[in-house]
Amino acid sequence: MVAPLNRIDLLFRHNARTIGGNTHLILPDGTEQSYAATYERACRIASAIVTAAIPEGARVMLLMGNSRELVEMYVGCSLAGVICVPVNTLTTVRELADTAADCTPLAIFVAHQCLDRVSSAVLHPGLRLKVITHGSAAGWDEYEELVKKNGPLARPVSDDPEAPGVMIYSSGTTGRPKGILLRQRGMTENAHMANLVLRYQMSDVALTMLPLFSSFGFCFDFMIPAQSGARTVILPKFDPQVAIGLIERHCVTVLAGVPTMFARLFHAENLAARDFSSLRLMDVGGGPVSDRLKSDLKNVHKIEIVESYGLSEISPVASVQAPFKTHRLGGCGHPLPGIEVKVLGSNGEELPANTPGEFCFRSSTFMIGYWNKPELTAQALRGGWLHSGDIGIVTEDGELSVRDRLKDMIISSGYNIYPKEVENALCEHPAVQSAAVIGVPDEIRGENVHAFVVLNPGQDASAQDLIGHCAGIIGKHKLPREVSFVRELPLTASGKIQRFALREMASGVAST
Questions:
Q1: Virtual CA dihedral for 212, 218, 222, 226, nearest 10 degrees?
Q2: Strands in 27-174 per DSSP E
Q3: Phi/psi at 163 (nearest 5 deg)?
Q4: Mean pLDDT of the region 236-250
Q5: Cα(21)–Cα(271) distance, integer angstroms
Q6: How far apart are CA 348 and CA 364, in angstroms?
Q7: Cα separation of 316 and 368, whole Å?
């Protein structure tokens, strides 16, 4: 009987033994790295961690963008039995210090270009290993030197599938990140469940459009391709023109991203001038793409596009649309095999189909908990169900449709208004590339709808144009009262809208 691949290191050991000669990574300079090479280099990094007397269960902080080093660290930390803590590369000096104070790492691996974020508060006396990639600095070990001088780890430190493996700090859309501790089995099992629906293949080529330090990127651009034995093209950070060049050059077949990425990647000029013929499947999470773009991609360019929904606490995928099936408008698929869902009202009552309420989930892939926050963990997992904080419906045939975050809902003149509904209406206008909506205080209505809009290059539209356009799609009470045109929306590194930053911007607009 074959042992289950329920740890990251077990998955990569299996790949090294069975398809070791196959290409795993295509690096930014065009060179290729096999699955066997990835595993061997990870074994050497694991040896360096163990040699530094970093015990099982200790935290190892990673501050680096998409790279082979970050991929190898995920495998190497699993082999060494430590908890890797990937950190957003947009983090500030203060934020990094706060994160380090929270998770108390015994080792830190930093990309050279991020070194200016590492303050003395992070480099505490108890730190046993500090490593720099793609460069050198006084007092730091160089990553490649560690790979060269350390032999492969003889055997993994742990074989426990329930052990913690990765801690991902929430993306900061509320301004208050918290450490979400994930177990080995939860991550591997969740990726397997998602791929039962998506069916990535060994012949597929993925592109890391998403940051690998996010739970979305970790699952779709690291775990699922590895479980499929597919190739992964490393895109260090999202740039639409660079991404298109890599899609064309390496015949990328599968993509995962957020709506803002697809809006920038597939605007009309790119669709007309560039070659996307290799793409067969794209998954969009974090919100729907516009119906117009989805129709063009499916019907004109023959690219299947599906929508998914998830949260880091579930490791991270909750639902995904099955490719080449008919789905309801605004839906994000059925729950993955092994995930239960119910919708609760404000008083905790279970709601019937098609009635908006809070999504609650039950699954074996739940997080262990929030780091150093037992009360918050108990609140989120009360009754054995994960209370997501997301508002949505479950249709009579069991498909999920997300309306919005519970805390982002706008209440105007007693009406509940979901920002995504207004954003979707705005994005149907041909001049709009992306949009985000918030509620701003109003003495009479309670809140007004304030929209922030990014226009497509070369396009023009006035606030009244957009409000008039929306009037034909959504009710009068949902229409934006104010429209601010911006060059770009404030996003997390994983492409999610930072609504707290929009509220700050709206406050600034109001005070001028």
A1: 170
A2: 32-34, 59-63, 83-86, 107-111, 129-133, 141-142, 164-169
A3: -70, 150
A4: 96
A5: 35
A6: 23
A7: 13
Pick the CATH number of 8-186 from 3.40.50.12780, 3.90.1150.10, 1.10.10.10, 2.40.50.140: 3.40.50.12780
Domain with CATH 3.40.50.12780 in the chain: 8-186
Q: Indicate the burial class of 488 (C-beta count within 10 angstroms; 0-12, 13-18, 19 or more).
A: exposed
The domain 409-511: what is its CATH number? 3.30.300.30
Backbone angles phi, psi at 167, to 5 degrees: -125, 115
State yes or no: pLDDT of 441 exceeds 60. Answer: yes
Assign 461 to helix, strand or coil. Answer: coil
Cβ atoms 472, 423 nearer than 8 A: no
As to burial, measured by CB atoms within 10 angstroms (0-12 exposed, 13-18 middle, 19+ buried), residue 304 is middle
Tokens, residue 306: 């599906």
- In this prediction, residue 511 has a pLDDT band, given cuts at 50, 70 and 90, of very low
Q: 435-465 burial by CB neighbour count: b if 16+ within 10 A, else e?
A: bbbbbbeeeebebbbbbbbbbbeeeebeeee
Element (DSSP H or E) covering residue 450: strand 446-455
Element (H, E) at 504: helix 499-511
465 Cβ neighbours under 8 A, 6+ residues apart: 429, 431
Cα angle 288, 293, 296 (rounded to 5 degrees) comes to: 135
| CA atoms of 313 and 215, how far apart (whole Å) | 9
Sheet arrangement for strand 446-455? 432-442, 446-455, 482-485
The pTM score is 0.85
